[in-house]
Write a structure and sequence with these properties.
binds pyridoxal-5'-phosphate, six-stranded mixed sheet, alpha/beta
Length: 343
């Protein structure tokens, strides 16, 4: 059976990193966030390309993600883990040499007891209330100089949000007295301007072509083969629940991807697939492996339809699904044939 093809443009990925790197002063290090398997695009391909583009520090969420990353990038680059440290991470720590970003006084104590002299960073909570040390934790901290002090902005995709300035102020206050490099900005923070850049930035989504980096080059293209096309007569229905009825005779293509592949079922309420330059609406509920698309009038009848590409990016599909580009990327299916271009 013909397979859906996810094409990943590695040249666009490295161009996006270079563009975000150029957005800060030359002395600011631009790292890269490659958690969740490189935002779903394959860490074994994404990370080496970023390393060749010039990335020297990588961030992942969990210790377990450090192992495939280390395999992909070799011994040199630094790996930071947002999730911090538990003693259960010691084998991975020894194997990969990742630097944990410690999130609580208990993590600092546990890490320092088991790894005297070991390198670590501190994650500070500057107002998002998700992970990190609170201002009142700092005075009691029996901490050597960390390798990095970082925090995360809750609203950086909304430049006018007052919380950006408030968190900036809190971060400045909390990092006073540390000599370690400071890192506050993810993609949104890079775009907020130089006062958010400190010594290091760490973009994620912008590398992969997503908002809020609106000038990003698109990185993914998704082509889904048509496996059957039929005429549906007036009054006939398409798909589970018989929710879509032909008002007149229509040609309906059945394509080989559904919600198990990240074509979210909520897209039933309206998403467009492209046959070349022609937009075609879905017809009927998205099912697990298949989706109906109305291709009436398209000539010649398409052999495949495109969900992601030049006509429609991850943020467009996200808007149709009521979500964000991050979620579209990280739920892209594992049944797709993945084709890597460039790099
Ligand atoms: C995911 C994540 C990032 C990357 O954010 P983007 O918006 O994708 O650039 C940076 N820092 C932390 C703590 C994160 O969890």
């Amino acid at each position: 059976m013909p397979q859906p093809t996810l094409t990943i443009d590695l040249d666009a990925l490295s161009a996006n990193w270079r563009a975000l790197d150029a957005a800060s002063a030359p002395q600011v290090e631009t790292a890269a966030v490659v958690k969740a398997d490189g935002y779903g695009l394959g860490i074994h391909k994404v990370a080496p390309v970023l390393a060749r583009a010039g990335v020297r520090s990588f961030f992942v969420a969990y210790a377990e993600e450090a192992a495939p990353l280390r395999d992909a990038i070799g011994p040199e680059p630094t790996i930071y883990v947002f999730g911090g440290y538990t003693p259960g991470d010691d084998a991975l720590l020894a194997a990969t040499g990742f630097i944990p970003l410690l999130n609580s006084p208990a993590q600092v104590a546990a890490y320092r007891a088991r790894h005297p002299g070991g390198r670590y960073g501190l994650q500070l909570d500057s107002g998002m209330n998700r992970l990190g040390l609170e201002p009142e934790d700092l005075p009691g901290l029996d901490a050597a100089e960390p390798a990095l002090v970082m925090s995360h902005l809750a609203c950086s995709d909304t430049p006018e949000h007052p919380q950006n300035a408030a968190q900036l102020e809190t971060f400045r206050r909390m990092t006073k007295g540390f000599r370690a490099p400071r890192c506050l900005a993810a993609t949104g923070g890079v775009l907020l301007g130089p006062e958010f850049h400190f010594e290091m930035t760490r973009p994620g989504i912008g590398l992969y072509g997503g908002a809020p980096f609106t000038d990003a080059r698109p990185v993914v293209t998704l082509d889904i083969p048509v496996i059957q096309t039929r005429t549906v007569h007036q009054g006939e229905t398409v798909g589970y629940g018989a929710t879509w009825t032909a008002a007149e005779p229509r040609r309906i293509a059945t394509i080989a991807a559904g919600y198990a592949d990240g074509v979210h079922r909520i897209l039933t309420r309206g998403v467009t697939f492209h046959a070349g330059n022609t937009p075609c609406r879905n017809a009927g509920r998205v099912s697990m492996d298949l989706t109906g698309v109305d291709v009436t009038g398209v000539a010649p009848e398409p052999e495949s339809l495109q969900l992601l590409g030049p006509h429609q990016g991850i943020d467009d599909v996200a808007a149709a699904a009521g979500t964000i580009g991050y979620e579209i990327l990280t739920s892209l299916g594992h049944r797709y044939k993945r084709v890597y271009k460039g790099g």
